[in-house]
Structure formats: C-alpha cells, structure tokens
Amino acid sequence: IIETHAEAAKAFDKNFKDRARLTKLVTTTEQDIASIQTNAGNAKSRWDSWNKVVGVLSPDGPVAAAVLERAASGIDRERLKWASATLRVEIILGNDGSVTIGSRATNVSSKAQNLLAGLALQDALCLAGGVPFLLVDELDVLHGDNLARGLKFLGEIAGDYEAVLAAYTGGKIAGLPGTFAQYACEAGRLRLF
User: Fold this and answer.
1) 106 pLDDT band (50/70/90 cuts)?
2) Which of 10, 29, 39, 140 could form a disulfide with 45 if both were Cys (CB 3.0 to 4.6 A apart)?
3) Residue 16: pLDDT band by 50, 70, 90 thresholds?
4) What is the DSSP letter of 141?
5) Residue 119's closest CA among 87, 142, 148?
6) Strand, coil or helix: what is 175?
7) Rounded distance, CA 48 to CA 50, Å?
8) Which stretch of DSSP H or E encloses residue 57?
9) Cβ-based burial of 117 (10 A; exposed 0-12, middle 13-18, buried ≥19)
10) Model-level pTM?
11) pLDDT digits (tens, 9 = 90+) for 145-171
C-alpha cells in the first residue's frame, strides 16, 4: 500500500509540475501580449514582446512542446513497444510532436511503414484511452511481408476491442480474422464486404 501511495504521489507531483509549467508559459505569454498594448509608443519594446509571443506559441515552441508532452503521456508506452516489435517498425516520438519511423521522418517513409507505425500508435492510444473499437484504413498499401506482419498484429489485438473496422479500396483482404468488419471505399462511400 505504501508503494502504491508513493507511486500515486509521484504521478500527481509530475502531473502538477507539468501543468504548472504550462500555466507559467501561458501566463508569461499573456503578460507579453499586455506589454505590447501598454508599450504602444515604443516600437522596440513592442517588437521584442511580439518576438517572445511568436517564439512561445510557434509550432516548435515551449507551449506546443508542453501540450504535446502531456498528450503523449497518455500513450501506453509498453503496448507501443510491443506493437513496434511485432510490426518490426521502429517508432520514435519526439518532444516536439514529431514521429520518426526507423531513421526517417513520416513524410519520407514509405506508405507501408507509415501505416504500420500508425497501427502501433493508434492501438497504443486507443488502448490507453479505453476506446472500444479500432478503425484501420488503407490496408491495401501493405504487400508481402508488411501485409503478413500487419495481419498478424491485427489478429493479436482483435480481442482487445469490441470491433475492428478495416476500410480500403480494392477487394476483400484474406487473412483478417472473421470478427473484423471489412469495408470497401468506393466513390466516397463505405460498402460492407
């Protein structure tokens, strides 16, 4: 019981510190915005204040990093590690919200590698968030070994969800568990196979 209490206290303290850090960043930004209004006649002070505001609120600034860090804390990291190993795809989550697959950013990885990494991330997020279903799209980009790994992974996680929905263009994919609802995407509509 003491160990559980100590762990809970540690988690509470971390959560409190993360929220306090974000609150401090937002408060400082609000003060800089107020400074812009009060220094209407001083161009240099206004410029400096705007630079601070833009820096703090930029996509790679500290507010975005703090928000993304809080969001990423909801990921089931052990499940993501297992999923990455099962799918044989290395996934690195950056503090700035970036996702690196292997040694490549998501915009330069293959569609198949992006889909496998996406499956692992989606599963870890859904499981941690208690989402009762999983929606998988674009399975038709998987071929050969990637398709085999993807189907094996989906078969192993199927029992963790009330429903798994698979949507893609093309014909029905053989090898998916019978519990999966397979949909064809045709002209903006889903059709159940």
Assistant:
1) very low
2) 39
3) low
4) G
5) 87
6) coil
7) 6
8) helix 43-57
9) buried
10) 0.58
11) 988 898 889 889 888 888 887 777 777
